[in-house]
């Protein structure tokens, strides 16, 4: 494959990922991706209480595999994507160092090949349409990896 073909495909992948992440961003400031005839649609608030159980803030993790455990109260995770949203149904978006690494239906997952150093995991409970609630339901921890 020619270098220009690889470069073009890389730009397409980056563009597609940018669009996907933009659709998951906050709807403040009139940037709601789902406008209605009378203006931007309001986002519902959620009944969820979200926390990262493991790793804990400031924890030093040995090895390059992180076990992420999340607790979710007041809501449930549903597998289907729908525009018929409910404040107590959705799924989780997991970011490592501000990079989306999974959209998951589980409360535990392994994150492999994490480089040594300081890192941050962000978990957000989002509605079934992949768009955040208002206010957002987010939790963040900072931890260190030692190989």
Chain-wise SSE layout:
Blueprint: H1 3-23, E1 35-36, E2 39-40, E3 49-54, E4 60-62, E5 66-73, E6 76-77, E7 89-96, E8 99-104, E9 108-111, E10 117-127, E11 132-146
Parallel strand pairs: 4-11, 6-7
Antiparallel strand pairs: 1-2, 3-5, 5-9, 7-8, 7-10, 10-11
Task: Give a written overview of the molecule.
- The protein is mainly beta.
- The protein has a single domain (43-146), classed as Sandwich (Immunoglobulin-like), CATH 2.60.40.
- The protein contains one helix and eleven strands; from the N terminus they run αβββββββββββ.
- The strands form three sheets. Strands 4, 6, 7, 8, 10 and 11 form a six-stranded mixed sheet that branches. Strands 3-5-9 form a three-stranded antiparallel sheet, with no helix packed on it. A two-stranded antiparallel sheet has the order 1-2.
- It is elongated, with a radius of gyration of 17 Å.
- The termini are far apart.
List keywords for this structure.
three-stranded antiparallel β-sheet; 1 helix; 46% strand; disordered N terminus; mainly beta; 147 residues
Structure described in brief:
Helices cover 14% and strands 46% of the residues. It has one helix at 3-23; strands spanning 35-36, 39-40, 49-54, 60-62, 66-73, 76-77, 89-96, 99-104, 108-111, 117-127, 132-146.
Supply Rg.
Answer: 17 Å
- Percent in helix: 10-25%
Q: Tell me, what's the shape?
A: elongated
How many distinct folded domains? 1
CATH level 1 name: Mainly Beta
Tell me the CATH architecture: Sandwich
SS-based structural class? Answer: mainly beta
Distance between the termini: 36 Å
Please summarize the sheet with the most strands: 6 strands, mixed
Q: Which homologous superfamily in CATH is the superfamily?
A: Immunoglobulins
Strand content: over 45%
Number of strands: 11
């Amino acid at each position: 494959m020619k270098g220009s073909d690889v470069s073009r495909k890389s730009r397409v992948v980056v563009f597609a990922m940018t669009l996907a992440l933009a659709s998951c961003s906050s709807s403040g400031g009139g940037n709601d991706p789902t406008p209605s005839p009378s203006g931007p649609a309001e986002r519902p608030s959620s009944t969820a209480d979200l926390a990262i159980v493991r790793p804990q803030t400031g924890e030093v993790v040995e090895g390059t595999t992180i076990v992420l455990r999340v607790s979710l109260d007041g809501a449930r995770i549903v597998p289907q994507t729908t525009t018929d949203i409910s404040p107590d149904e959705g799924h989780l978006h997991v970011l490592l160092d501000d990079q989306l690494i999974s959209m998951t239906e589980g409360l535990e997952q392994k994150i492999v090949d994490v480089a040594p150093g300081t890192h941050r995991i962000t978990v957000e409970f989002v509605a079934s349409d992949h768009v955040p609630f208002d206010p957002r339901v987010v939790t963040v921890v900072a931890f260190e990896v030692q190989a």
